Amino acid sequence: MISAETRHRRPSTPLLLLLPLLCDLVAASYARSWDLAVVIGNEIDFFARNSTPMGQASIREAIALTGVTYDDTTRTMYLSDVRNTVSIFSNDLTERNFTSTPLLKKENGTHVVGIVFDTSSRTLFWVDALKDTIARMHVPLNGTPGDPVVLHNLTGSSPRGIALDVCNSRIYWVNSNMSNPSIECSDIDGNNRTIVIKENLYEPLAVAIDHTERKLYWIDDDEGIHFKIERSNLDGSQRELLVHNKHQQPVYLAVDNESIYWSDWVHSAVWTMPKNAKAGDYPTKFKSYYDERRDADPAGIVTRDNVGQIDCATILSAIEKRPHLSVPDLQPAIKTFNNLTTSTEESDLTTENSKYCLNDGHLNKVNDTCRCKKGFTGPFCETSLCHNYCLRGKCIVNHHGLPECNCMGTFSGPRCETDVCNGYCLYDGVCSVQDGRPSCSCKYSKGTRCEEPDDIPTICATYCASDRVIKSHDVSVTSCRCTDSDQTAERITLSDSFQNGVLLPIFGALVGVFILIIAILSYYVDKLRRRSRIKRHYVVSKGVTPLTSRPQIPGQCEITIENCCNMNICETPCFEPKLRNGAPRSNNMKKEEKNLLLDNMEGNSC
Q: Any residues with CB less than 8 A from the CB of 70 and at least 6 apart, and which?
């Protein structure tokens, strides 16, 4: 075995740094050389079940390994990488150079986080966390792998972990979307898709199948700093809580014949715990990478027990002979302690439970905490989950240990908090609940909610202090005016009441304003057009010198004073002398000045 210090001084070439494994592989011996494999960064660490390191493989082609699975018949390991140009590749452990073979290239945002391999059909299944899909690919013993096929499109579900039930040819996966978390399964061809676990999940991240005991295990990253590891039968029944701890970030999960294992990114470690734990059994660190100063955290885990030669017929036969494994409540010799299976030798703890834990809760003597039965919570199991839970109904605890409400009357909702009939029926309609939905029985109206008035006088008499009918020209308007201390409301029942009562007065006011503006503008335009112009004609007798050079009409001379003044064609200019004092002049004075001007013109032979 090569130490970590020596390993870091070796060149980065594809090597298989595990001597015990090489001896077994070269000798073609089928003796087991490792029980557990963990991927971290671009390396694979191999361990025995007792956490003894068995070797290490450094893969030059890898960058950030995530998922890992193993084909025990051909000694081939399949790996996924989220930061490489190749998302999935295989490595033959029987070859000394440990050369990688690309199977799926990274394209269009491929992000494979978990993979499993079915030996009988030679099919590789994986979860793509970015595309929200579960896909598969046929990997023959010889030849080119088949094209990838999308098995399930899980848009918006955020699928993460994946597991394979070899004996039933089914795959399981978790949907980690916190708004709709679930655990589902289907046949390996995609048919018979079923939701296995739905209730009391927060963010499930990983799932594993225990073929020996036919159990389903999963990790739930609980709200806050807590996490849970639970198990159930393969159909979701007989659900058990195994670990409820905090200050960890579990990501990947595996199980073998004795224990469960999970990788934790908070402590950069792999943890383990007996899968059939007894009182006093707590998680322990299987391997810590915290002090090794690696640039990555442990990710995928694979166990030889769960991927090796699985004899399904023997397992099913053993299950039939041990019914307590699937239906523990049928065995009177088995009691439940701390949600884990224990023997009757610990039955004396029942007396201690009654001293500390209420409502039939069970005491954990190691840390003096109570494990409450379904429907109760609190440090001493003193609080019922149904306490003040249902507002208008009766509370019960379902088979998942969660409170449920049977609502009364017209109330509905998870806690019977909503009156579905509140304000639903109009005009005094009577509301009732039929098939979970509100229904109206109308008195003097019609419609689904009694919204169409049918008897106007009755409605007015019911809703108003007085009712009347208003005649407005050729339209009959029924107006109900209801008055109280705070407000006055008017209900108009004809379709054109709004136009008559509001639009017409507004339109008339606008027309009046428009007419007034036109009248004002007309007045000022007319005033500007009235400007006086001087135009007089004089006839001068013959023999007088003409004032102008115009052709003379026989017998007379015509002179236009306006032309004389404006065109300046006279020998003597025509003007009105300015007064020194500038005082306003009357009309008589203006006439005298004009006459004087004309006399001057005649005297000057104009």
A: 37, 76, 77, 78, 117, 302, 304, 307
CA atoms within 13 A on the CB side of 483: 3
- Cα–Cα distance, 241 to 141 (Å, whole number): 41
Of 143, 73, 148, 67, nearest to 104 by C-alpha is: 148
What's the pLDDT score for residue 40?
A: 94
Token pair listed for 486? 């705070």
The rounded Cα 220 to chain-centroid distance in angstroms is: 20
Give the dihedral sign, CA 74/78/84/87: positive
Query: How deeply is 207 buried, as exposed, middle or buried, from its count of CB atoms within 10 A (0-12, 13-18, 19+)?
Result: buried
**Mean pLDDT across the chain, nearest whole number?**
75
Q: How far apart are CA 236 and CA 573, in angstroms?
A: 124
Nearest-5° angle of CA 582, CA 586, CA 588? 130
Please give the DSSP secondary-structure letter assigned to residue 6.
Answer: H
Q: What global pTM score does this model have? A: 0.52
Query: Rounded to the nearest 5°, which phi and psi values hold at 588?
Result: -65, -40
Sign for the pseudo-dihedral over CA of 455, 460, 466, 468: negative
Structure tokens of 394? 């009766």
Position 136 scores a pLDDT of 96
Lookup: tokens for 93? 């452990």
Low-confidence stretches of the chain (pLDDT < 50) are 1-30, 323-355, 467-478, 482-495, 542, 544, 547, 579-580, 605-606
> Cα–Cα–Cα angle for 12, 18, 21, nearest 5°?
140
The residue written with tokens 């098939």 in the block is: 435
Tokens read off for 370: 């109570």
